[in-house]
Amino acid sequence: MVGIFGVWLKPLETPKGKPMKQLFRAITTELGNGIHEIQPHQVGRLKPHPLIIDVREEREYLLGHIDGSVHVSLNTFESKVLKIAPDLNTAIVIYCAVGNSCASATEALRRLGYRNIFSLKGGLQNWLETGGLVECGRTAGDA
Known about the structure:
The chain is of the alpha/beta class. The chain has a single domain, classed as Oxidized Rhodanese, domain 1, CATH 3.40.250. It has helices at 20-27, 40-43, 58-63, 77-84, 103-112, 123-129; strands at residues 28-32, 35-38, 51-54, 65-66, 70-71, 91-95, 116-120, 134-135. It has a six-stranded mixed sheet with strand order 1-2-7-6-3-5. It has a two-stranded antiparallel ribbon with strand order 4-8. Strand 6 (91-95), helix 5 and strand 7 form a beta-alpha-beta unit. Helix 4 crosses helix 5. The two termini are 29 Å apart. The relative contact order is 0.21.
């Protein structure tokens, strides 16, 4: 399987006898309240693939965003996220520019009852620095 960075990635598999929660602990840093920080190279290994939400300003999103991500502005976040991810078990990765603005979005997800919440460590800046690709200009996926 070709991963996000154009290299071959082996999907993460739960070892026999290990619950998924232990696997998440192995690849993420717990931020507290059930929210995990995830490294850019680990996003493509999550199975099933997570919903990736960009919480930056729309103009920033249009300049470049992670392929397949959805833009959801922070001021309408709670109402829109329930529409695009009605299943509270959906794995969701939140990102912003450098990782500082995700706290309110991840906290909102926790309050709404989502169980698989990830914050992209270092945001889009870290994504790019580690070789991640972006796409530009798409507004059709804007939630």
